[in-house]
Structure prediction request, 526 residues.
Amino acid sequence: MIRFENVGLRYGTGPEVLRDISFTLPPGSFHFMTGSSGAGKSSLLKLMYLAHRPSRGLITLFDRDVALLKRDEMPEMRRQIGVVFQDFALLDHLSALDNVALPLRMAGADEGDIVEHCTEILRWVGLGNHLHATPSTLSGGQQQRVAIARSVINRPRLLLADEPTGNVDDGIGMRLLYLFEELHKLGTTVVIATHNEALIRRFDHPRIHLENGRLHVLPANSAQWV
Amino acid sequence: MKTNGASLFRRRFDLPLARDATGRFLTWITALMVYLAALALAGTLLVSDMAGRWDRGLAGGLTVQVAPLAEAGAASLEERVETAVKVLSATPGVTAATTLTPEDTARLLEPWLGPAAADPLLPMPRLIDVVTDGTVDTRALDERLGAEAPGSTLDDHAVWLSDLRAFASALQIAALGIVLLIGGAAVVAVVFAVRSGLAIHRHVVELLHLMGATDRYVARQFEAHVMNLTLKGGLLGLGLAAATLAGIHHASAGLRAGLLPDTALAPWQWLTLAAVPAAACLLAVVTARWTVLRTLVTLP
Ligand SMILES: Nc1ncnc2c1ncn2[C@@H]1O[C@H](COP(=O)(O)OP(=O)(O)OP(=O)(O)O)[C@@H](O)[C@H]1O
Ligand SMILES: [Mg+2]
Prediction:
């Protein structure tokens, strides 16, 4: 599904924030991503969802060499990736429902189905009473849930979530993780960047850990991690 | 599902373009441009109408004017008119030669001279209306008339007509030039509006791209927006142009006979004018699409 070989990333002329990253995520896998603040979790995810190109190294995504992708092949690739951005990236002028509907509209889905689908998912994340609220009138945790609903709405093949539970309590956090878990059961490959150790411990998934720009893959509930 | 019904029919743009002032100026500029273009086009239509009427009325026509002569010993006006008609009838190519009565002549001159034209004391020339099949050697005819019926002059409509035609086509070319300039300015305005829209909403466009939006998808948003704005502006401009034309027609109808050409437009001509906002809208939409697609290929 995803393969990194000796990937390095630097912003502009700055130092390499990611160095010699090599790993493979098999299709249908579920990984947590950990690392202290500034370790490069968001940067690694950006490489995965094609927001940045690596400074060096080889990235293979859906069996395609990302460096060789043509501009007009990108949308098709990106539509198979659901992303929860760390800053949510909701469109302020659109209602919660319309924000969630974006991926479906881009895919040209039927308008009646779109409304039904989006209503259902927003109810699931506990926003059934805020379907038509704009993001600026929602709390941080509510916005985060809209962002999560949007990332899973079209059942992506790959789901990348950057701190998806950073703004909610553990109860809602669990509920949201079950959403990803459901998606995972349907065959989606999932990567979740998080600082929340308590949540990680509740699920039996391996983690990729970033430290000093380097990556370590640790098995599920590894004792290596303190 | 009560609340969802409304959202089904609400117009949605993924880009908050409707909030930009840069976009709204397109409506006004389109109104102005459609107004000017519609007037220029109406002008062309009227001029070509007029030219057509002159053509039909004057083609193949000559007018012979026999002036009253004050010198003693000259033949009387009536005699000279008769001679001229004889000469004309004998000329090959002339199909008819009709003498206008003094009353007819007075009526023709009335717009210029007022009711005084009918004053019998005023020395009036006599006019002979000549219809030809177009093969008459006008110079030879003029010389012969001068010799046999002194005081008569030949007025060849063809000379007039070619002047009028040249004038009409010059006007039409000028109007076409104006319309082209307006179209060019419209294209520039749309390019500017779309570029600034893309710049203002760059982060939204980037986000849409990350979520898998194609350039076409983004372009469609701009197309719909530009269509909305320019259609409104175009209809406004057309309405103003129609009001202006109606005003001109009303004012000219009040003037005394014949001095001004007819300023009424036929139904098909109104339809042609109605096509102006549609054409402006189409031009704007195509330009918007082209601008978006061209600008986006420079983005990652
Ligand atoms: N757009 C950018 N331009 C320049 N430097 C950047 C940019 N984005 C991130 N960095 C740098 O890259 C490093 C890694 O940042 P990144 O956002 O990937 O960390 P992170 O692990 O997601 O942190 P956090 O847990 O706080 O979200 C940081 O040192 C940061 O300063
Ligand atoms: Mg981060």
Q: What stands out?
A: The pocket of magnesium ion (ligand 2) is lined by residues A 41-42, 86, 162 (CB under 6 Å). Residues 12 and 167 of chain B are 52 Å apart (CA to CA).
